[in-house]
Design brief:
This protein is of the alpha+beta class. 52% of the residues lie in helices and 19% in strands.
Length: 353
């Protein structure tokens, strides 16, 4: 055990040295520094972070790295530190540091990386999926209740407006995405639905609807509680990739769960869907139906009263809209996510009617 701590301390010290170099040398220098401790590297096109799996005396750890400014990872480091300062369990967190060259998080590895989405797409039973989702919700809800405060609906709505304005600006760098965002009507499987911008204008232009859908309490949450961030191992559950931005309403995270179990997010991210553009802004789009999620969606809805569920459904639709620029390099995937969002907006307005 002492040897393992020494090796881990050595890895952490070298990472800090690398982080503090204004010119870090990039990934090649990092890989050279990790040497034979490096086990594997995991990258994703929709996140700026790269995961490096390293060994320290027989144990595997995860080093999450972003080079340069690294705003996303800096926020995540801040989240873990805030949690520790509030006396919350450290869970997977070991240490983290942000410097001019790079930012890194050193985390314990939890199982083999299987997620609730992985289990669902593999045909896991509803009961098992429901237990993992319920544990994640309980953990997030406890965190929220321990830190919540009243801020007023105007404050929460301004957070939403700023987030979407930033994403619209980012979307403008991709002509196809800018066109998709601005389209008035999109046809999905022969049914014409209002486009995302039209849906947003409908909500934002109606003060009563904004008031109804916007909560007035915020607190500390995981901030990205979709089923791809809920890790499982032999009956145990852990949530990863917390967001360290502003305090948020709990319906923000419940919306992330609805995004997964009702919105088709996991199926799209796994490439399990059929998408064909038939004419202009008309598409045939069929995400794979995940049988286990149908009952989990019922359980999720039952855990909320009607207002909280509708607010969560609203956030789920917003999440699909806001995430599009992060996926924009993969045009088909981004289009599929956009169509998921439009479908959720349609579900929201149908239930509000």
């Amino acid at each position: 055990m002492l040897r393992a701590r020494r090796e881990l301390s050595a890895v952490s010290a070298r990472l800090r040295e690398q982080a503090e170099r204004p010119v870090s040398g990039g990934e090649s220098a990092l890989i050279g520094m990790l040497g034979d401790r490096l086990v594997s590297v995991l990258r994703s096109h929709n996140t700026p972070s790269t995961l490096y799996y390293v060994r320290a005396d027989g144990e595997t750890y995860v080093v999450k790295v972003e080079f340069g400014r690294a705003p996303t990872l800096r926020d995540e480091i801040r989240w873990y530190r805030n949690a520790a300062q509030r006396g919350l369990p450290r869970r997977l967190f070991i240490t983290g540091h942000s410097g001019p060259g790079l930012s890194f998080l050193l985390l314990k590895r939890f199982g083999d990386g299987s997620t609730v989405d992985d289990l669902a797409l593999a045909g896991e039973s509803t009961g098992q999926l429901g237990r993992h989702v319920a544990r994640a919700m309980d953990s997030d809800t406890e965190l929220f209740h321990r830190t919540q405060c009243h801020v007023g609906q105007d404050h929460v709505h301004r957070l939403t407006e700023r987030r979407l304005a930033l994403r619209r600006s980012q979307a403008g760098k991709f002509p196809y995405l800018r066109t998709l965002m601005d389209v008035d009507v999109v046809t999905i499987n022969g049914i014409g639905l209002p486009g995302a911008s039209r849906c947003l204008n409908r909500v934002f232009g109606d003060p009563r609807l904004v008031s109804y859908l916007t909560p007035d309490r915020v607190g500390m949450t995981f901030g990205d509680l979709h089923c791809g961030n809920i890790l499982v191992r032999e009956g145990f559950t852990e949530v990863v990739d917390p967001r360290g931005g502003p305090l948020l309403p709990i319906t923000y995270d419940y919306g992330k769960l609805i995004q997964s179990v009702e919105g088709g997010y996991g199926a799209v991210m796994a490439g399990r869907y059929v998408l064909r553009r038939t004419d202009g802004t008309a598409y045939e789009f069929v995400p794979e139906v995940v049988p286990g999620y149908s009952s989990v969606a019922v359980l999720l809805a039952a855990s909320c009263d009607e207002l909280r569920y509708l607010q969560s459904l609203y956030y789920a639709a917003l999440h699909f809209t806001a995430m599009l620029p992060h996926h924009a390099s993969a045009q088909e995937e981004t289009t599929a996510l956009y169509l998921c969002g439009v479908s959720l907006f349609d579900k929201l307005f149908t239930q509000l009617a």
